[in-house]
Amino acid sequence: MKRLISFIIRKIPRKYLQLVSEPSLKVVGLFLRGNKYTCPIINKSYRKFLPYGRINPRENALCPDSLSLERHRLLWLYLKEKTNFFKEPLHFLHIAPEQCFMKKFEEKHGEGYITADLESPLAKVKMDVHNIPFEENTFDAAMCNHVMEHVDSDVQAMTEIYRVLKPGGWAIMQVPFFSPIPEETFEDASIKSPEAREKAFGQDDHVRLYGKDYPDRIRSAGFEVIEDDFIHTIPSDLVERYALPKNEIIYFCKKN
User: Fold this and answer.
1) Of the residues 68, 91, 107, which one is the last residue of a structural domain?
2) How far apart (Å, rounded) are the C-alpha atoms in residues 249 and 38?
3) 94-133: pLDDT as tens digits
4) Residue 127 near residue 117, CB atoms below 8 Å
5) Same domain, 44 and 131
6) Reduced to 3 states, what is the DSSP secondary structure of residue 69?
7) Final residue of a domain: which of 68, 84, 113?
8) Using CA atoms, how far apart are residues 253 and 175, in angstroms rounded to an integer?
9) 193 lies in which domain range?
């Protein structure tokens, strides 16, 4: 199973996976039901989650019904407990929308919920994050996860997100980190081949390897950044039951 999942993730483009993964994995989910692990997004329990990862798939990572990964389940809890996301209707921009969130977010925010992506067939708006096609001060909040490592200019993309947020608005912008985390972000536009990019940046479609200076890059776009270690406030039994990441920092970015 691990090898199959790794092969599928590496070889099949994301835009095609999004069309077929949900119905096919729901069938798999029927055989994994149990009581050991729970996805808080859909409140369904399983004897185990599916493995997930491009090279060395992680055990108990992917919920077959919601399609959530560890980081998604953490973000769901964070949105519920630390933000106004579920407390009031928002004009919310979801860039590169994760399937595990889309139905629930749409139910909560209706027409105010805008999904946007350059390629995804599931998004409402086709959009390049370097040039967001909305007026400034449009959105109450935004989310853009595991995107900045793919784009030509992450700071330009962050600046665009800042521009379209209303004063007082917030964004969550997560990126992957690979151990050992360097002090400074490494990027080199001359590295072109998939093999060289995987060696340099950790994945063949990444264009930079993020370092400990990531929050400073966000600040350079104008944001106030809170580096929230919310994961360490969650009881250990729930961390295990929800199969959450052990050390992920959430970058809560606010426009003043």
Assistant:
1) 68
2) 22
3) 999 999 999 999 999 999 999 999 999 889 999 999 999 9
4) yes
5) no
6) coil
7) 68
8) 13
9) 71-254
φ and ψ of 126, to 5 deg: -85, 125
Which tens digits make up the pLDDT trace of 233-243?
999 999 999 99
From the list 158, 157, 218, 162, the residue with the least C-alpha distance to 185 is: 218
Q: Which two tokens stand for residue 5?
A: 């999942």
Q: Please say whether the dihedral angle defined by the alpha carbons of residues 97, 54, 52 and 251, taken in this order, is positive or negative.
A: negative
- Average pLDDT over the chain reads 92
Tokens read off for 74:
């953490």
* Dihedral-angle region of residue 78 (phi above 0 means left; psi in -120 to 50 means alpha; beta otherwise): alpha
What's the average model confidence in pLDDT over 187-207?
96
pTM for the complete prediction?
A: 0.90
Q: Angle at CA 167, nearest 5°, toward 162 and 170?
A: 55
Query: What whole-number distance in Å separates Cα of residue 152 and Cα of residue 13?
Result: 19
Asked whether residue 159 falls in the same domain as residue 37, the answer is no
Counting beta carbons within 10 angstroms of the beta carbon of residue 87, is it exposed (0 to 12), middle (13 to 18) or buried (19 or more)?
A: exposed
Tokens 């989310």 sit on residue:
143
Cis bond upstream, residue 167 (ω within 30):
no
Shared domain check, 80 and 30: no
Any alpha helices (H) in 151-235, and if so which ranges?
154-164, 194-201, 214-219
Please give the structure tokens belonging to residue 221: 């776009």
